[in-house]
Amino acid sequence: MQSSFAVDPYSPAVAALAKQVYRGFQWSKNYFGLAHKTLSTRLLSLAMPPIDSKSKPLPPELLAWIQQQFDQLIETDWQDAERGVYPTSLLFDNPWDDFFRFYPVIWFDLPEMWQRANQKRYHEFADGIQTSDYPSYYLQNFHHQTDGYLSDTSANLYDLQVEILFGGTADPMRRRILGPLKQELKATALAPHQLKILDLACGTGRTLKQLRATFSQAALCGTDLSPTYLRKANQSLSQNPGELPQLLQANAEALPYLDNYFHAVSSVFLFHELPAEARQNVINQAFRVLQPGGVFVICDSVQAIDSPQLAPMMENFTAIFHEPYYRHYVTDDLNLRLTEAGFAKLETQTHFMSKYWVARKPGSI
Ligand SMILES: C[S@@+](CC[C@H](N)C(=O)[O-])C[C@H]1O[C@@H](n2cnc3c(N)ncnc32)[C@H](O)[C@@H]1O
């Protein structure tokens, strides 16, 4: 006999409770990020010369608008899970082991980062890090990151640092590629196990993890220039059920794949870190490796044209973080670049601090 206390996981009451837990948790991540940034800036300013960043305070109406966009992102994320784009469990995927192991390391790393930022040292790598064979634009301490993208420590801290920077919204923003991908791929009538999907500049594998949860039978590939980020991705993805994505060290400007191979290509938070010419090269490569009828989805920062009210924030981002290509990126016409590469049926969306391009290679799968 069934207990009268049994909980139906699909009941509206349980769903409503889960939604409140999710919202509450996202808000607490937001406050945690804010508290971390405020406290660390105050403490470091006491002990070391302040960073001359020329950042400007944000007007209260902009802060209110940002809060509303934050809420909207969380709502959309919940609704996409509820309508089955991806499992609800993804919303609660938090790498706690990493948090407890590496959050203290973030604090130890801060004085060194602060000093590098203050002294405008942007190209520093620890002895022993191999820096040959990388494009020169890549050999930077992007966002003052110790060792750029080229050490295990950097790979271990990256996800946490991004979570703090975006107040816990990095994963919800990444997940916004999943709806368009699923919709475009459904139209192809391919069986789930036939799908081949590539994530460009996969970093530590957060997007691949979301892709695996959404396309459980697809063949997944991920490429990145950083050997240490790929190692981290491998560690994290190998804890997942399902087939392990194939990871390959490669420049997204020269992909080691056959023409017309993949059904979908994704790229998350890469384009703002590329000079203009490299952006075009990556788009051309995505076009080349996609099958006719295949879909390319880009997620990156919002741009000036869509979100003029965010101009002070974009200025601050350039001033505070070392992001040498961001200023050009926010005015770059990626639609034009996509069209020049041959893509058709372009769509764009924005969610919170991110913009999305969904482009289709002409033809049919
Ligand atoms: C801001 S991180 C984004 C990583 C990941 N997609 C995410 O969502 O967190 C940028 C990534 O792009 C990689 N990258 C930068 N330029 C690249 C290039 N030309 N080819 C391949 N990877 C590149 C870096 O190694 C890094 O992992």
CATH superfamily of one domain, by name, is: Vaccinia Virus protein VP39
Strand order of the largest sheet: 3-2-1-4-5-7-6
Q: What is the N-to-C order of secondary-structure elements (H for helix, E for strand)? A: HHHHHHEHEHEEHEHHHEE
Tell me the CATH topology of one domain: Rossmann fold
Helical fraction: 40-55%
Poorly predicted sequence stretches spanning 5 or more consecutive residues: 1-5
Structural class: alpha/beta
In this structure, how is the largest beta sheet organized? Answer: 7 strands, mixed
**Distinct small molecules:** S-adenosylmethionine
What is the architecture of one domain at the second tier of CATH? 3-Layer(aba) Sandwich
Number of strands: 7
Please explain how this structure is put together.
- The radius of gyration is 21 Å and the shape is globular.
- A 7-stranded mixed β-sheet has the order 3-2-1-4-5-7-6, with helices on both faces.
- The chain has a domain at 177-360: Rossmann fold (3-Layer(aba) Sandwich), CATH 3.40.50.150.
- Helix 7 links the parallel strand 1 (196-200) and strand 2 (219-224).
- The model is unreliable at 1-5 (pLDDT under 50).
- Helix 4 packs across helix 8 and helix 9 crosses helix 12 (334-341).
- With 365 residues, the protein is an alpha/beta fold.
- It contains 12 helices and 7 strands.
- The site of S-adenosylmethionine has 19 residues, from helix 7.
